[in-house]
Write a structure and sequence with these properties.
alpha/beta; binds magnesium ion; EC 4.2.1.68; TIM Barrel; metal-binding; nine-stranded mixed sheet
Amino acid sequence: MRVVALETHDIRFPTSLELDGSDAMNPDPDYSAAYVVLRTDDGAKGHGFAFTIGRGNDVQTTAIKALEPYVVGRDCSDLGAVYRDIVGDSQLRWLGPEKGVMHMAISAVMNALWDLRAKLAGKPLWLLLAELSPEEIVDLLDFRYITDALTRQDALDILRAAEPGKRARIERLRADGFPAYTTSPGWLGYDDDKLRRLCKEALDEGFTQIKLKVGADLDDDKRRMRIAREVCGTGFPIAVDANQRWDVATAITWIGALAEFEPWWVEEPTSPDDMLGHAAIAREIAPIPVATGEHVQNRIVFKQLLQAGAISYLQLDAARVGGVNENIAILLLAAKFGVPVCPHAGGVGLCELVQHLAMFDFIAVSGSMDGRVIEYIDHLHEHFVDPVVIENGSYVAPLAPGFSSALRAESLAEFAYPWGPVWNTASESPPIS
Ligand SMILES: [Mg+2]
């Protein structure tokens, strides 16, 4: 698995035009992918990306390009070694460590390597990971900074405990898929009629949970929650998501005002860096659960959220921490603390990625689907070579080899920024490289 080339693409979708993806902190999102393609000397390709919003791609694609010397010309067969080398690079590490733009770039490249590995093996990534031995899995990880909560031996114990029944769980997954919930009805920029119609459609399509964006205006939130509750009925799980809008005290009073509508969980009530703030909110709003994770920057912050009893649902993101390797450590931490993982997937291509991680978790780590759902949004899947498939409110287990991360060539051309025809912001031709 010798990589001979790394190329980046700045791909942006003008989702702000319809307010798809709008929430309390992101009123005008243009969902974007800082996209990377790795090529091997025998013509195989691996694809990965960091999800950003519009202008973030300027910085993100440059950060991915900075990793070129660490993978090009290298035999990347040992993905544990590659991961630890890139994360440990002393000069790039200064930009983190293990957080922010550089870490997301590492995620894009590591995920592209995993896509390549799975394609070469002829298997979907979830199955490739599920068939690794416990020893092979722990060799992929970096236990530095988490051994006070999860040691190598703890990880082996969790993985070995999940060995019995793996085959049966693979069969169940192939037959029934993995439960999904939909965020599509609840974007903050949608009017009440659209909210009502999309709630109804979610029920008709078999979803067993929805999520609404909240946090900009309390009266609006109450009215929208009342509409959703009317359509979905008493007891139907309706989660709410504040996208980091509140200070701790505001979160507590705001959620208190929404308690009559029985939110299933409250997501990102405050800064993703505030472990103790999350813990205080969780204590004060109990029994309403707190969920977070899409902006949690690494395994160490997840460790602290779990140690502090701050979250009841862990929402890992496939393209923010250091890729598949670090996410396996996070799945193991969640299993150690008995907290269900419900991955974040609001963004371009995140549904495609996280399904593999959740399915691997079910088969080989937690061994359970109880309390677990994968987020689903119905935007932008048409741009992927192997888009997710939802049937009866569940993700169908993908069968195509790889990580489902490849964008279609037509989409790469049409949505390239700023030269693609959708953007049409430049009068000159792109420079020849
Ligand atoms: Mg969210």
